Each structure stands twice: as structure tokens, then as C-alpha cells.
Amino acid sequence: MKTMSAPTAQRLRPALEQAVAAVQPALAAWRQQRKPRDPIPEPIWREIVTLARFYRPSPVAHALRVNYTTLKDRVLTSSLPTGGGDGESAVIIDEKQKF
């Protein structure tokens, strides 16, 4: 089982490193038992997409060694709430509108 190299681990923010560490065992187990060209299982992708929506796709893709473009496309097409981690959505108020 491969783990992140020391330089990669040092560059990750501690919160991202901890979040990635929660997904890595499932991804590593799948990589150990998969057949060539098998897709990553959907439950693992959902966890990865959740991380990417919070921490951005690039550092998550790099840390987990998954395809950046595939991850970015999954983030863009997912219906999960974005950023902040609290599940609340932002409300934009038009200041020109009179109440």
C-alpha cells in the first residue's frame, strides 16, 4: 500500500490531510483488489467529491491520485452543497431592490 510522500503530506493543510486520510483506506483497498480499468466505486467517488467541493478539486485529486478532470466534472455535476461545510447556501441580495 502506497502512502503520501513526506513532501506531499507537508504541503497539505492539516484539515485537508485529515480529511484525505479518512478516504484513503477505502481507495487503497479498492486499488489493491481491482481489476484493470475498473472504475472507482460510486460510494468512494461521493466521498472524494464531497472533499473536493470543500477543499477544491486540485489538491484533493493530487493527494488521492485521482484524475483531476474527472473529479472536476463530477464536482460540477453533483448536487451537493458547496463550501463552508455547514450545508447552508448563500443568499444574494440585490441592493437596488426596494422592499
What's this entry about, in short?
This protein is mostly helical and 99 residues long. The chain is 59% helix and 0% strand.
Radius of gyration: 17 Å
How many DSSP H or I helices? 5
Instruction: Indicate the mean pLDDT.
Output: 80
**Binned strand content:** under 5%
Number of domains: 1
Low-pLDDT stretches are 85-94
> Termini separation (Å)?
60 Å
Question: Can you describe what's shown?
Answer:
The chain is mostly helical. The chain has one domain. Helices cover 59% and strands 0% of the residues. The protein has helices at 6-11, 14-33, 42-55, 57-64, 68-77. α2 packs antiparallel against α3, α3 (42-55) packs across α4 and α3 crosses α5 (68-77). The longest helix is centred in the first third of the chain and has 20 residues, at 14-33. The protein starts with 5 loop residues before the first helix and ends in a 22-residue tail after the last helix.
What's the topology here?
Elements: H1 6-11, H2 14-33, H3 42-55, H4 57-64, H5 68-77
Helix pairs in contact: 2-3, 3-4, 3-5, 4-5
